[in-house]
Amino acid sequence: MSAAEHQLDASTTDDEEESFFQDIDILQNHGINSSDIKKLKTSGICTIKGLQMTVKRKLVQIKGLSEAKIDKIREMANKLSSESLFMTANQVSVKRRHVFKLQTGSNEFDKLLGGGIESMAITEAFGEFRTGKTQISHTLCITCQIPSNGYSGGKAMFIDTEHTFRPDRLKQIASRFGLDEESALDNVLYVRANTSEHQYEILDAVAAKFHEDCGQFKLLVVDSVMALFRVDYSGRGELSERQQKLAQMLSKLQKISEEYNIAVFITNQMTADPGAAMSFQADPKKPIGGHILAHASTVRLYLRKGRSECRIAKIYDSPDLAENEATFAITEGGIADSKE
Fold it and tell me: How many Cβ atoms sit within 10 Å of the Cβ of residue 221?
């Protein structure tokens, strides 16, 4: 059995994930109509926690659900919720034992991240072109399949907005890690987003897929998060609407990461800051997306070019990681340690 097949054959995975979240189907045992539950699932709401994380205004917009029905459903969901409103720090610590970290392919990069890309969080990597954003995305799609240190391995979901996804690249990386190439590709689900609206709508189907294949998916990649928003919204006149839509999409990404214990990795572009010269900033470039994206990302990584194939990753923002740098290389087998 290949490593890629072995990791998805772990018998304990489904049990662990089922205990991690409560299926919305349990509402049927408490007086909620099955047809109403189906309507919720069609909208990407498949768990009790997912229902609690959706505002009433959004629920009322679901066709066929009246305000009275929504109130009844929410009341029952709150009663059935396994999580109490208040938790001690110890209880939060126990819950965070579910968190896993995905290796990047580079030991130095992993050390910088405290072990790798964290689940139940959004990790954003931004930088200029050719700084390794897409290469990291492809490498993670393979490394997430490899079991290690109590981590069972799993599948990846890749949302492509820039037409940068390359299956042949995955084969090269899979070969480096000794995985069967065809099996490795079967474990990566690909979605092409065509507009910013489509990108947002896809997330409902993604949530439903994560629920359907309980516990099998460990990684969600969006490469890149802002490309389509830059195309669909232009000028200051549309900036407010763009940021509102962006905030809604990022909120949904965060909910998915927490609801299904998924590592979310998003890439972002950079732009020149015209006011940098006036403020004497050393680097006149900044990531796009403004404060909305800055606050939504749990960990922000600033990537820049080094010598030859070497790249430098810097912790730009994190709730628990020190501001530091690491050097890694882009090789034929994906992200690896730099030889320099």
Answer: 25
- In angstroms, the Cα distances linking 198 to 20, 126, 134, 194, 204 are 29, 22, 21, 6, 10
d(CA 142, CA 147): 11
Residues 37 and 27 sit within 8 Å (Cβ to Cβ): yes
Res 311: pLDDT? 96
> pLDDT at position 287, please?
93
Integer Cα distance of 232 and 129 in angstroms: 21
All domains of the chain in start order, with CATH: 16-80 (1.10.150.20), 99-337 (3.40.50.300)
Contact 173, 333 (CB under 8 A): yes
% helix, strand, coil for the chain, step of 5: 45, 20, 35
Is there a contact between 214 and 24 (Cβ–Cβ < 8 Å)?
A: no
pLDDT tens figures, 108-153: 999 999 999 999 999 999 999 999 999 999 999 999 999 988 899 9
CA 72-78-79 angle, to 5 degrees, is 90
Spatial distance between the Cα atoms of 261 and 256, rounded to a whole number of angstroms: 8
| 266 dihedral zone (left: phi>0; alpha: psi -120 to 50; beta) | beta
Question: Of 26-40, 62-76, 178-192, 280-294, which gets the smallest average pLDDT?
Answer: 280-294
Question: What's the predicted TM-score (pTM) here?
Answer: 0.88
CB 303 within 8 A of CB 131: yes
| Closest-CA residue to 125 (of 21, 272, 264, 245) | 264
Provide the pLDDT for residue 340. 67
- Residue 110 has which token pair? 């992993």
* Per-residue pLDDT at 278: 55
